[in-house]
Write the structure tokens for this entry.
Amino acid sequence: MRIIGGRDYYDSAAAYGIDPGIIFVRKEFRPTNGEMDRIGRYTSRGFGIRPDTSEEPSYKTSHQWRMGNLEPGLKVQASAPVIIFCGKVYSGVFVTITEGTGIYEVKTEYRFWNAEKFEAFLQERGWRTSSSQYWGEHGLTNLDDIFSVVELKGDALQCLMEKQIVCLVPEARPLDFNRPFYRSRVGWLEQESDFVANSDRLKDWDFQKAFDPVAAFQEISQWVGGTLASYGPNIIEIKDDLVKAHKAGFDTKTSFRRPKQTK
């Protein structure tokens, strides 16, 4: 696979060999809200983290736990960002810990794309999640649901093929994923969404924790050369004569002749 435009973490895997007949034009754009409704309205949702004790303090509501105030000088906030990659929905958990107050605040961010590592993180600190409901409108109610991989089908898959979408990432920077989401009434479906398609921003979300560079490169190559290529209207025409000849079996040293056989 040849990649045109941008630079992302999986580009390093091209050193292991490429098929020049498969081309991924990495030029970002923002799908409309109407297109995102076809794909699925996946938004990042916040949830609370609290000390892992048997008692629920009466002075703390679920909303207050979500705001992250565990104790004076310690604030912990978590959210579940979503990335759509090669026809599948992946979600992780990002945790921001703020220690100190005022000018002495120190923020540390932890990013997880694996349920076991997130649970180990909580256990090490004696914490647990404060609510069983993370994405109410999507019916996800536990960590296994959050970290599960959802394969898009039907009209959602059709939309990805029509728009030739390889990946979709939230437009917001990782530290802004808890920002509110609003819908305007007039012309909302035609407005650009909060997701960016075919960008080189997977590295900004530490997506290499979900897919190492080689696996991500192979997944994209199969998606672009297989599923997206099967949708005819947007296939890129290869005009490079050398690439065409290579695909037809031409060798620059032996032409179309069979190589000499060793005895």
